[in-house]
Amino acid sequence: MNCTNIKNNQTIDHAEIPILVYDEFLQINAVETSDLQNLHCVNYFAHYFNDKIKLICCIADDDSHTIRVSSSVVDKNQRLSSFTKHNTTFEKFEREISENFGIKYVDHPWLKPVRYPENQFDKKNTVENYPFFEIHSEELHEVGVGPIHAGIIEPGHFRFICNGEQILHLEIQLGYQHRGIEELFLKKKKLLQKILLAENIVGDTPVGHTVAFVNLWESLCGFDASLKLQFDRFLALEHERIAIHTGDLSAICTDIAYQLGSSVFGRLRTPIINYFQIWAGNRFAKGLIRPFKTNFSFNTELLEKWKETIAKYEPDFREMSQTMSTLPSVLARLEKTGIVSEETVRALGCVGLSARASGSERDIRKTHPFGIYETLNHQPIVKRHGDVYSRTQIRKEEILQSIDYIRKMLDEMPAESKNITEKYQPAPSSFTISLVEGWRGEICHCAITDENGELAVYKIKDPSFHNWTALAMAVRNNEISDFPICNKSFNLSYCGHDL
């Protein structure tokens, strides 16, 4: 057996993951998956294993709704053939492994630092000395943006190589604000401390990342969430999608100087995020999602308030969306701008709306569903042109889809679940993986426990980790003035990448 097949949120004994010789490990994960659209890497990471390094690769099979897990143990000083040579979706995973553990891949095409974390293998690497790609020509010039940005944009540096106004190449350098959050999951022993960490992995996705952690933790503890718990988490996930997509539409309008759209979508976002304040006492739903329970159970009073909120929101949203979609001045800025082909998103392993805008159906709600999603029969909204307009349209249509899903669920709200009095403890020497389709795309949390049931390894992957390179591809051959709208159409996370 060369891999173990598990389901999303399934816990297995860590010893069940087969340990392969590296050449076989490379063959089954990189070579054999390179041309298969139904297989993609959801996580690939390393951890110290005795005096060596253990590599663990998780490949999602979207057709069978399973995840293939395999591993290999290598020496610290061993020089390895890269997965990336055969399958470019592994490019950033291997760069991170090299940065943190010192492994040198002999044929990796772009072996540069990813984050410059405190625990990097070579402490001599500094973010100030990042090796930017260069083209030497008297006809070309470079433009640097960041890492200090105007407004509330997080720190990141963008280095453009341009021919006049045309962008030939963009390299994105991140790694300015890593918090060591994966290590903190190991150091913080109280469950509440871990929950607070999960809520703050990415500032605009507290529900998505907290649901991933809660699903993982409950699986480790052998706890089956009640239908009411699943219901509350489903509502929170889809409501977060509505809120952030609405805000993004406002920001997209701002970047093309469409002030009416910016104002209207911005106004519409406010009551949506304020609904979380009514429900949980926090506009970003912090404090709502908890293992084994919910602090603020959804009830009939909240149900009526949600219907009232959406009844005021939806007519104005539909009118503004229709107006925006028919204005020639808007369409001229969005259509055929920032195109990423389906071939490119598949080669890069893109996820979420960034992938679905270019023809890929990648969506965890369909391919690896959990809880309420298992009976939802979700159909991803997919566009084919891969431009800013496609990414804008997906946001509009997903908002309406999420409203429709919630309305249907409200008609069948399950009865309140019983209070949990039993104390649950994570299983020892175990492995668990949790996948959640956040508003931005595929979130993945992995955990390994030691013989005492304590977290020994905790690995987080935000969808931005997959998608930043797609932004660099999107702006090629566009004018540099198109960068802000391209950037906003992806709306990727800096802190979710840097961790």
Can you give a write-up of this model?
- The protein has 499 residues and is an alpha+beta fold.
- The chain folds into 2 domains: 112 residues, Beta Polymerase, domain 2, CATH 3.30.460.80; 318 residues, Orthogonal Bundle (Cytochrome-c3 Hydrogenase, chain B).
- Strands 1, 3, 4, 5 and 6 form a 5-stranded mixed beta sheet that branches.
List the helices and strands and how they pair.
Layout lengths: L3 E3 L4 E3 L5 E2 L1 H10 L7 E11 L2 E10 L4 E9 L4 E2 L10 H11 L2 E2 L35 E5 L11 E7 L2 E8 L7 H7 L3 H9 L6 H15 L6 H29 L3 H22 L8 E2 L2 E2 L5 H27 L1 H7 L7 H7 L3 H5 L7 H4 L20 H23 L19 E8 L4 E8 L5 E7 L2 H11 L8 H8 L3 H5 L1
Parallel strand pairs: 3-6, 7-8
Antiparallel strand pairs: 1-6, 2-14, 4-5, 5-6, 9-10, 10-11, 12-13, 14-15, 15-16
Helix pairs in contact: 6-7, 6-13, 6-15, 7-8, 8-13, 13-15
Question: Can you describe this structure in just a few lines?
Answer:
The chain has 499 residues and is an alpha+beta fold. It folds into two domains: 4-115, 2-Layer Sandwich (Beta Polymerase, domain 2), CATH 3.30.460; 181-498, Cytochrome-c3 Hydrogenase, chain B (Orthogonal Bundle), CATH 1.10.645. Helices cover 40% and strands 18% of the residues.
Give the termini distance in whole angstroms: 34 Å
Tally of individual domains: 2
Radius of gyration of CA atoms, rounded to a whole number: 22 Å
**Beta-strand percentage?**
15-25%
What is the top-level CATH class of the largest domain? Answer: Mainly Alpha
Oligomer: single chain
CATH superfamily of the largest domain: Cytochrome-c3 Hydrogenase, chain B
* Topology, number of strands: 16
- The overall pLDDT, averaged over residues, is 94
Fold-level CATH name of the largest domain: Cytochrome-c3 Hydrogenase, chain B
What's the main sheet like? Answer: 5 strands, mixed
Assign the CATH architecture of the largest domain.
Answer: Orthogonal Bundle
* Class per helix and strand makeup: alpha+beta
Low-confidence stretches: none
